[in-house]
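In the laboratory, one determines a bound structure by crystallizing the protein with its ligand and collecting diffraction data. In a computational setting the workflow is compressed into a single prediction: the sequence and the ligand go in, and a structural description comes out. We illustrate the idea with 2'-deoxyguanosine-5'-diphosphate.
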Amino acid sequence: ATDKIQRTLALIKPDAIDKSPEIEKIILEEGFTVVDRRRVRLTRAEAEEFYGEHRGKSFYNSLVDYITSGEVLAFILAGDDAINHWRRVLGPTQVSRARHEAPGSIRARFGNSNNDFHNAAHGSDSVNSAQREIRFFFPDLTLEPVLTGEGAKEYL
Ligand code: DGI
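The predicted complex, in structure-token form:
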């Protein structure tokens, strides 16, 4: 344990929502605490904001199409080193790479065989993005600061 308690935003994407019971089982087996959860269908404008860092990229429109194609299930997960822990459980971004490099990962198991980037689930990639993404999906939630091992506080 690194004594680095964090929160992160996990998202089950539309084409994997049928697998959400299996994915939730993994979340609990991995020792995460589910702080809150919300099932929502993003509007196009919301999806464009969520993926704002990719605006202008070649795949931006297909990314927005994908994430708005149905409901998503958003979770706030808490735990030791939660941001990196959840990304390890997800596996690599591309489904084909996940299947080669991390066959037990969520993206390997639940990603789309026909589209490398329809990768079943999302995880925040830094403390800043976790903070932004948690506020995006749970704007009304007031969270207590997380106490880290050094006694410092991280406001997520
Ligand atoms: O944090 P990740 O989801 O692992 O990856 P990211 O933040 O770099 O990209 C966000 C999503 O955008 C990713 O889950 C799939 C999609 N994406 C990333 N790079 C490409 C892409 N989609 C296409 N079509 N082409 C890409 O090069």
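The pocket of 2'-deoxyguanosine-5'-diphosphate is lined by residues 59, 62-63, 93, 117, 119, 122, 125 (CB under 6 Å). Keep in mind that any predicted model is a hypothesis to be tested, not a measurement.
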